[in-house]
Design goal:
A hairpin with a 5-residue loop joins strand 1 and strand 2. The protein is 53% helix and 8% strand. By secondary structure, it is of the alpha+beta class. Helix 2 packs parallel to helix 5 and helix 6 crosses helix 8 (189-216). The chain has helices spanning 2-23, 84-94, 98-109, 129-134, 143-160, 165-174, 176-182, 189-216, and strands at residues 33-37, 43-46, 55-59, 115-117. A 4-stranded mixed sheet has the order 2-1-3-4.
Length: 217
């Protein structure tokens, strides 16, 4: 009975957090919600980052999909060194521009390796469980596995769409079936802004990448 009440309370708390996260669209950052298991093994939710326990941060959409986002994508902070070596290794392995990979990670999870969306997408590159399994990713919350799987998937999409980055980004966001159904980028506001913001982020990461290469030479 006690356990039942705890689960009911957690459900109410999660519902309240969901309302807060979606109600005030003027806020740039949504209210973070952390999912974890208590000492008694009960799944719990909190608006405060749990200490001393494993947790996942529940997100309600991809970072760059919020249509009315107030973030200035041309000036927002870039993550130039975070997971840089892992991204470079995977990009070299699958023949893809690492700046594009960084743009996708930034757009998908804001470089949060523990991110999980309401649809169930997980980790840095927000892999769905079925996609992760197909890509051979055993633990999507391990950065190396997630990046390797996501880059492999991106590389395949780039080949499929003959290097068209806009279509690749759209397919990564909305699915290949949706691209086929509409014969191109679908008329979804979320996908359109996602594609635009990935392009902006890609250009910015690419400029820093070229500058770093120039300084090395």
């Amino acid at each position: 009975m006690f356990s039942h009440h705890i689960k009911l309370i957690n459900s109410i708390v999660l519902l309240c957090f969901c309302s807060l996260a979606n109600a005030n669209t003027k806020n740039i950052k949504q209210t973070p919600i952390y999912k974890y298991k208590s000492a008694k093994g009960v799944t719990s939710f909190s608006g405060i980052e749990p200490m001393g326990v494993d947790y996942t941060q529940v997100r309600f959409d991809c970072f760059a999909c919020k249509v009315d986002s107030l973030i200035n994508w041309r000036k927002a902070k870039l993550y130039l060194t975070k997971y840089h070596s892992l991204i470079s290794e995977a990009s070299n392995q699958y023949g893809i521009d690492p700046a594009y990979v960084k743009a996708i990670i930034h757009a998908e999870s804001h470089f949060d390796s523990k991110a999980i969306s309401k649809q169930g997408a997980q980790g840095l590159m927000q892999l769905m469980p079925e996609t992760a399994q197909w890509l051979g990713v055993k633990n999507p919350f391990v950065a190396q596995q997630n990046i390797n799987g996501g880059v492999k998937h991106l590389s395949r999409l780039l080949r499929k769409y003959k290097g068209n980055i806009s279509l690749t980004s759209a397919a990564y966001n909305a699915g290949e079936g949706t691209i086929k159904r509409y014969g191109g980028i679908p008329p979804y506001a979320e996908t359109k802004v996602y594609v635009e913001r990935v392009e902006i982020l890609h250009d910015r990461y690419l400029k820093h990448q070229r500058l770093a290469q120039k300084m090395k030479s």
